[in-house]
Write a structure and sequence with these properties.
The structure is a single chain. The chain is mostly beta strands and about 55 residues long. The protein has one helix and four strands. The chain has one domain. It has a four-stranded antiparallel beta sheet. The chain is globular and about 35 Å long.
Length: about 55
Amino acid sequence: MTKTIITFEYEKETKNSVRYQEVPEEGKAPIMGTLYVQKWFAGTTKNLEITIEKKD
């Protein structure tokens, strides 16, 4: 099992959600790219972290 933490920064608001752009680690390609989170959950948060775990 491999766990990876992905960091996102606020990009813009859409009608019902907030759009975040991934901040990739230096020298690495983005894993997820863009993330949309519903406004009721995101609130005014400017940074998010998501943990992804691969289960083989």
